[in-house]
Each structure stands twice: as C-alpha cells, then as structure tokens.
Amino acid sequence: MLRTTAPTSVRTGSALLGVAGVFVLAGCAGTADASNVSTDTGTGSTAESSTSAAGGDAANYADGTYTAEGSYQTPETVEQVSVTLTLADGVVTDVEVTGEPSNPESEQYQSQFIAGISDEVEGVAIDDLNVTRVAGSSLTSGGFNIAVDAIKEQAAA
Fold first, then answer.
1. How far are the Cα atoms of 11, 85, 154 from residue 141, in angstroms, in the given order?
2. Backbone phi, then psi, for 113, in 5-degree steps?
3. If we measure between CA atoms, which residue out of 62, 148, 127, 76 comes closest to residue 105?
4. pLDDT per position as a tens digit, 104-113
C-alpha cells in the first residue's frame, strides 16, 4: 500500500525543524554595514562607495593629474584600459578612460563604460571610488578599479 500523506507527527516535526533552521541561519547573518553603500543612478549603472568613519583622507592625496593602466579578464582575452584622474583635495574633478580593445564585443562595452564613467566618479572622493558597473559594462570596471588603486599610490602625499 502506498501512503500519499505523511503522519501528522512527521509533518509537525518537519515544520518545527524548518522554523528552527531559519532562526539558526538568521543568526549567522551579520548586521547591516552602513559603510558600504550601493547606489543605482537609474541609467543602468551602479557604483559602490565606501566612506570612512573619520570623514575620509582627502588631505592625504596631492592635487594633480595622474595616469595608470588597469587590466581585466574577459571570456576571450585580457583587456587593458588607461585611466587619467585629476584630483583636487582628494576629490576627482576630471576623468578620462581610453582603451584599445582586441575584439568588437570588448569595444562595445569599453565604449559604453567610457561614455558613462564621468557621471559616476566626478565629484566623488578618490577613497570612495569602487565602480562595479557602468552603462551595462561590468568587466571594464575591474581594470578601472586597478588603475584607481595605482593612482592612489601615485598621489599619496
């Protein structure tokens, strides 16, 4: 004989076990961290920024224009972008990104990234930059962030 329903004690035990599991997993979750804020500009781009509790270290960067290279992996190849940032009081006042993509798809994504990056980073403190996606391009941001890290080292006063 096939039984199509489980006895009440089994159903009750399973339900209690499921509820207990939810509470255990909820206890594993950390608290919300206000230092990592993700913003979506509504243009298909997302930039994450991290703010320090001390209000930033803008004074630790010398004003000027800095250039660095950053590379990133695509499914087909490794691509590279050149990033030039102009800093004033630790804040990005101008950005220029150039690249020489090796295939048409990379060219498309780099072009979209280049067209949208200034809206994401100009007026933002360099320590708060952590670009994740610009105009649908997510891989190019990896090369951009590597270049920004190198620029931080160059500009450190």
1. 50, 15, 20
2. -65, -50
3. 76
4. 999 999 999 9
